[in-house]
């Protein structure tokens, strides 16, 4: 057939089918090897090292006051940043999807900024503003307010790196879904809050959860930005990722890997939930497109 | 007056969507806002609803000035072009929504809500669909559920944006008549937006023709069709033959044998059924011949051309009842004489 109409047969079949089995197998093996080498092996190492001296040592190193303090701080930072990022994300996505205003494109670009700026630079910015030698550092120390090398600085740095996550997920979703259902709710006598919670939130919930999940993973895992502003004070300003580094540098390998295993566990859970949410969100988008097409 | 609009203007950037609209709609009418796309008809509907704010002018509903009232206080029912059913709710919950979001004092009990929703579902003849989700319904069913949902809050005015625009032709025909009958039953003042003149003629009791953000004419379907007050209305409503008396077309008219006794303007609009066609036996007397004809059901449409003019612009359309056409025994190529029974004159 290809002799009669080669153009047709090339277009009709996926390109890979024309490649020999040898090429296909090689590509699959390379991908698998990469995953094993760079993802599964390190994960296994973390677990093996964490349990190298047995279950009790593992549990003991996690129950250590500094480790517990690091976990508490990480949870606290996430508990503050995730809601703030969510509120910001929903507001920004709402504004961008619903209204035409001056500077809209600039806002969209700025939302992406944290993705393109190195987290270390992000941390440094806060040191330059709030640090002892910074712009408002002297005023802050005169009023006995500590930002850098304290919890507020860590929260600020984490906010900076996480704030695009929710907005980025919601903007395309809300643009796709459109405004009609909300207008319908208003015309039926619902007020703004009722419309938001009964109509908007159910329509965007999977995208919203997906954004919150990614944001949470980043908030709990952020190292670079937090490392610059934290000052690594054990038991006070060490988050879980920082605690891993501190412990490792002090040759407390079990402690380091035990804490790391918690982070890795969080990552695996995130990955599984993310896959489910991604699927759910796609269903939402598909439904929105279908509705728009009719 | 159920709806009164005074000096409504709306601008989008440099584009004037609505230009000093004044309109009174009496209680109980079923009004069509008719016009080509971009004429401002949907914008006007949204301004009445409160979904859009006019730059200037006032909106009165039942005598109250609601210009500064948000949509939720206007007691209107709005049916959206794509229905905007809440996709995460069942049909029942969609219709119950307007009752459930009422302030606690006015909110009916769940039992009352249930009765009311089922009554509405019976009104739109879809009670059996109450536990379905919107994506399990056909277009026509969604349309009727959207209408039931809008009626649930007992609106004083019902507004419908292109209510049949997204439906198949056959479903559309049924729903048009159904809407007209439903309106007779409920008698709630209703406005619907359409770009389809046939639809407006068939459904509405009053038609408001809009063009370039202005009202061209307002009246009953018969008034609009029989006494068009502008060139635009005459062309937009139904088919019409346009003869320019000045310039070349005059010759076209004269050479067809159509006698223009006393022109009352420079442009004559003639509906196809206002042209009498007669067969001429002596071919030298007429330069007009039957080019083609189509069967439109009860009537036959004739395409008439003059010798040497084959462009579509120079075709005259005439219509006559079936029987008359049969009696005439006309064939393609036959010579005919034309007589204009009635024309609308414009300048």
Topology, please?
The complex is a heterodimer of chains A (294) and B (347).
Chain A: H1 6-12, H2 21-50, H3 54-63, H4 65-98, H5 104-116, H6 119-130, H7 137-142, H8 151-162, H9 164-177, H10 180-187, H11 192-221, H12 224-230, H13 240-249, H14 253-293
Chain B: E1 3-12, E2 15-25, E3 30-34, H1 41-49, E4 56-61, E5 64-65, E6 76-79, H2 91-100, H3 110-123, H4 139-152, E7 157-161, H5 169-186, E8 189-194, H6 197-203, E9 206-211, E10 214-219, H7 221-226, H8 231-236, E11 241-244, H9 248-256, E12 267-270, E13 275-279, E14 288-295, E15 299-306, E16 316-321, H10 322-328, E17 336-340, E18 344-346
Parallel strand pairs in B: 3-8, 3-9, 6-7, 7-8
Antiparallel strand pairs in B: 1-2, 1-4, 4-5, 9-10, 11-12, 12-18, 13-17, 14-15, 15-16
Helix pairs in contact in B: 2-3, 2-4, 3-4
Short overview:
The complex is a heterodimer of chains A (294) and B (347). Chain A is mainly α and 294 residues long.
Descriptive key words:
heterodimer; A: 294 residues; mainly alpha; 0% strand; disordered N terminus; B: 347 residues; OB fold (Dihydrolipoamide Acetyltransferase, E2P); 2 domains; 6-stranded mixed β-sheet; 4-stranded antiparallel β-sheet; 10 helices; elongated
Structure description:
The complex is a heterodimer of chains A (294) and B (347). Chain A has 294 residues and is mainly alpha-helical. Helices cover 80% and strands 0% of the residues of chain A. Chain A contains 14 helices and no strands. Chain A has helices at 6-12, 21-50, 54-63, 65-98, 104-116, 119-130, 137-142, 151-162, 164-177, 180-187, 192-221, 224-230, 240-249, 253-293. In chain A, helix 4 (65-98) crosses helix 8 and helix 4 (65-98) packs parallel to helix 9 (164-177). The longest helix of chain A has 41 residues, at 253-293. Chain A is globular. The two termini of chain A are 40 Å apart. The model of chain A is unreliable at 1-12 (pLDDT under 50). With 347 residues, chain B is an alpha+beta fold. Chain B has two domains: 3-236, P-loop containing nucleotide triphosphate hydrolases (Rossmann fold), CATH 3.40.50; 241-346, OB fold (Dihydrolipoamide Acetyltransferase, E2P) (Beta Barrel). Chain B is built from ten helices and 18 strands. In chain B, strands 6-7-8-3-9-10 form a six-stranded mixed β-sheet, with helices on both faces. Chain B has a four-stranded antiparallel β-sheet with strand order 2-1-4-5, covered by helices on one side. In chain B, helix 3 crosses helix 4. Chain B starts with a strand and ends with a strand. The A-B interface holds A 180-181, 183-191, 194, 198-199, 202-203, 287, 290-292, 294 and B 49, 51, 70-72, 76-78, 80, 82, 84-88, 97-98, 101-102, 135, 139, 149-150, 152-153, 166. Chain A: It is a multi-pass membrane protein. Chain A: It is found in: Cell membrane. Chain A: The complex is composed of two ATP-binding proteins (CysA), two transmembrane proteins (CysT and CysW) and a solute-binding protein (CysP). Chain A: Its main location: membrane. Chain A: Keywords: Membrane, Sulfate transport, Transmembrane, Transmembrane helix, Transport.
């Amino acid at each position: 057939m290809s002799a009669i109409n080669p153009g047709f047969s090339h277009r009709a079949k996926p390109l890979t089918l024309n490649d020999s089995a040898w090429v296909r197998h090689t590509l699959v093996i390379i991908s698998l090897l990469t995953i094993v080498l760079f993802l599964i092996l390190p994960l296994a190492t973390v677990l093996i090292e964490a349990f190298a001296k047995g279950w009790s040592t593992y549990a003991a190193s996690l129950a250590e006051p500094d480790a517990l303090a690091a976990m508490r701080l990480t949870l606290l930072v996430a508990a503050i940043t995730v809601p703030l990022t969510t509120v910001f994300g929903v507001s920004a996505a709402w504004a961008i999807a619903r209204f035409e205003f001056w500077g809209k494109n600039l806002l969209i670009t700025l939302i992406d900024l944290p993705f393109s700026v190195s987290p270390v630079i992000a941390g440094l910015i806060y040191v330059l503003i709030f640090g002892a030698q910074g712009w408002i550092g002297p005023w802050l120390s005169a009023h006995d307010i500590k930002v850098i090398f304290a919890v507020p600085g860590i929260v600020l740095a984490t906010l900076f790196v996480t704030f695009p996550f929710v907005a980025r997920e919601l903007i395309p979703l809300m643009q796709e879904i459109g405004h009609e259902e909300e207008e319908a709710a208003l015309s039926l006598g619902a007020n703004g809050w009722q419309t938001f919670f009964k109509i908007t939130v159910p329509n965007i919930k999977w995208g919203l959860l997906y954004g919150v999940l990614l944001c949470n993973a980043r908030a709990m895992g952020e190292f670079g930005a937090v490392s610059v502003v934290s000052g690594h004070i054990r038991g006070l300003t060490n988050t879980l990722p920082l605690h891993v580094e501190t412990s490792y540098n002090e040759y407390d390998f079990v402690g380091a890997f035990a804490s790391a295993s918690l982070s890795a566990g969080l990552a695996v859970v995130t990955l599984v939930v993310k896959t489910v949410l991604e699927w759910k969100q796609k269903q939402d988008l598909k439904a929105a497109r279908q509705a728009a097409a009719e | 007056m159920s709806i009164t609009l005074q000096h409504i203007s709306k601008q989008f950037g440099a584009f004037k969507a609505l230009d000093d609209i004044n309109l009174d709609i009496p209680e109980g009418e079923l009004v069509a806002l008719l016009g080509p796309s971009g004429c401002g008809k949907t914008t006007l509907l949204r301004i009445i609803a409160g979904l859009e704010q006019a730059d200037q002018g006032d909106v009165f509903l039942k005598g109250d000035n609601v210009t500064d009232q948000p949509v939720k206080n206007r007691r209107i029912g709005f049916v959206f072009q794509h229905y905007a059913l809440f996709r995460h709710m069942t049909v029942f919950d969609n219709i119950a929504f307007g009752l459930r979001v009422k302030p606690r004092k006015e909110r009916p009990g769940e039992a009352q809500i249930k009765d009311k929703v089922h009554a509405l579902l019976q009104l739109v003849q879809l009670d059996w669909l109450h536990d379905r989700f919107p994506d399990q319904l056909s277009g026509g069913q969604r349309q009727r559920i959207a209408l039931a949902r809008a009626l649930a809050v007992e609106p004083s005015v019902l507004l419908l944006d292109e209510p049949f625009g997204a439906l198949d032709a056959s479903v559309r025909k049924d729903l048009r008549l159904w809407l007209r009958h439903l309106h007779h039953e409920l008698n709630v003042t209703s406005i619907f937006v359409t770009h389809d003149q046939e639809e407006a003629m068939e459904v509405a009791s009053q038609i408001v023709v809009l063009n370039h953000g202005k009202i061209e004419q307002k009246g009953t379907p018969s008034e609009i069709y029989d006494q068009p007050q502008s060139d635009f209305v005459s062309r937009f409503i139904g088919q019409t033959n346009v003869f320019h008396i000045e310039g070349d077309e005059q010759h076209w008219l004269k050479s067809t044998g159509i006698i223009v006794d006393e022109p009352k303007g420079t442009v004559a609009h003639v509906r196809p059924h206002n042209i009498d066609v007669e067969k001429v036996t002596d071919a030298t007397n007429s330069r007009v011949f039957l080019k083609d004809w189509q069967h439109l059901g009860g009537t036959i449409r004739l395409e008439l051309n003059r010798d040497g003019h084959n462009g579509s612009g120079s075709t005259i359309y005439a219509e006559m009842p079936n029987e008359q056409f049969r009696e005439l025994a006309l064939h393609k190529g036959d010579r005919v004489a034309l007589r204009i029974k009635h024309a609308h004159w414009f300048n």
